[in-house]
TrEMBL record:
Stated family: Belongs to the carbon-nitrogen hydrolase superfamily. NIT1/NIT2 family.
Molecular-function annotations in GO: hydrolase activity
CN hydrolase domain span: 3-238
The organism's place on the tree of life at top rank: Bacteria
Keyword tags: Hydrolase
Name of protein: Carbon-nitrogen family hydrolase
Length: 260
């Protein structure tokens, strides 16, 4: 029941999807040599925060990035998750997608909480559906960056028995302490694995903090990256979740009627 994960903590060329796709393809090839089951790429890994050019660089759900992801998943027999710039009609979204080892899309989640500090709300529409999905026959959920500051949103994802929370981010370096504490808290309070990929490098306005992490349902750090480019590997046993949920049965003990 173990799942072998590779988190690709990469720098992102601003507004240059072709360069980012080429770099990600090289890194996926490298990670695939380690026989991983799942690869996680950062938030907006094809474009960075070049929001004012989304009319040129955002893609439909059958665009070149999606075709590449499907091809890589099938070629290396693994799943890949990561968020990309999506256009649908006249609207733009920050969308977390996942494909399985057959190249089938398993996840389509539009960032629900747009981050004003980076002007997301000026350019993007927010999503309003959850990021629950199934990976290797396990229930899981995927969310994007700022979403982790909303524990009530994370909790709604965990009520179906999900065992892992995937997070993709472009989290700035000055608040990397928040990133670490929030991720650990989300793991403890939901008794789930947290698998979180942040980018590194910088754009004109921000430096990004790295520290991608894998955290177990007890809140222990299984693996943590530093502040530079790297591929972080970890192997987790999702059945650990059941043991901890039996030991301290928070999902049975919740009293939702008090929380409204
Ligand atoms: O909440 C934060 O401090 C960072 C959030 C963020 O950078 C984002 O959502 O893109």
């Amino acid at each position: 029941m173990t799942m072998k994960i590779a988190i690709i903590q990469m720098d992102i060329a601003f507004g240059d999807p072709e360069a980012n796709r080429a770099e990600a393809e090289r890194k996926v090839q490298e990670a695939a040599r380690e026989k991983v089951d799942v690869i996680v790429l950062p938030e907006l890994w094809t474009t960075g925060y070049d929001l004012s050019r989304f009319d040129e660089i955002a893609e439909k759900m059958d665009g070149p990035t999606h075709r590449l992801l499907k091809e890589l998943c099938k070629k290396y027999k693994l799943a890949i998750l990561g968020s990309v710039a999506e256009v649908q009609g006249e609207n733009y979204y920050n969308t977390l997608v996942g494909y399985n080892s057959e190249g089938t899309r398993i996840l389509h989640y539009r960032k629900a909480h747009l981050f004003r500090l980076m002007n997301e709300e000026k350019y993007l529409e927010s999503g309003d559906t959850k990021g629950n999905f199934s990976i290797l026959n396990h229930k899981a959920a995927g969310v994007i960056c700022y979403d982790i500051r909303f524990p009530e949103w994370m909790r709604t994802h965990m009520l179906d028995g999900s065992k892992a929370l995937f997070v993709v981010a472009e989290w700035p370096k000055p608040r990397v302490d928040h990133w670490r504490s929030l991720l650990i808290s989300r793991a403890i309070e939901n008794q789930c694995f947290v698998i979180a990929c942040n980018r590194v490098g910088s754009d004109d306005n921000n430096r990004f903090g790295g520290h991608s992490m894998v955290i177990d349902p007890w809140g222990n750090i299984v693996a943590e990256a530093g502040g530079h480019e790297e591929i972080l590997y970890a192997e987790v046993d999702l059945s650990d979740v059941e043991e901890i949920r039996e030991q301290i049965p928070i999902f049975q003990d919740r009293r939702p009627s008090l929380y409204e």
